[in-house]
Write a structure and sequence with these properties.
The protein is mostly helical. The chain has helices at residues 6-29, 64-67, 74-110, and strands at residues 44-48, 54-58. Residues 23-79 are annotated as: Disordered.
Length: 111
């Protein structure tokens, strides 16, 4: 397999950095003022403020930000696939042209 091209490598790096930053954001962002309550995984949590008031907090899922990131190579791969398809089509087209020429020549020879 060839080494990844410079462009591809840059895309991957950008993608990875995006993931890392969103991970950091999502992990630090979801802190509610819940005293001695460490299980942050339930979405509908009551947290008790200092004065004893109850706040309902709809907490974001940790992975939500991370999941919605599209693959950085999607565009690259799409274009690549398009190119491959075009190449296939071009080859077929060339073959078609050759066949038509042969048929024409045969017709001319018959006449």
């Amino acid at each position: 397999m060839p080494p990844p091209s410079r462009r591809r490598r840059r895309l991957m790096a950008a993608h990875y950095n995006a993931i890392v930053t969103t991970r950091m954001i999502s992990s630090t962002h979801n802190t509610t003022n819940n005293n001695n309550n460490n299980n942050n995984n339930n979405n509908n949590k009551k947290s008790y403020g200092d004065d004893g008031s109850v706040e309902e907090s709809k907490e974001k899922m940790h992975g939500a930000l991370r999941v919605s990131l599209p693959s950085p190579l999607a565009n690259y791969n799409r274009k690549r696939r398009k190119g491959m398809l075009f190449k296939k089509w071009a080859i077929q087209e060339r073959l078609r042209q050759q066949q038509q020429q042969q048929e024409r020549q045969e017709r001319q020879e018959r006449q």
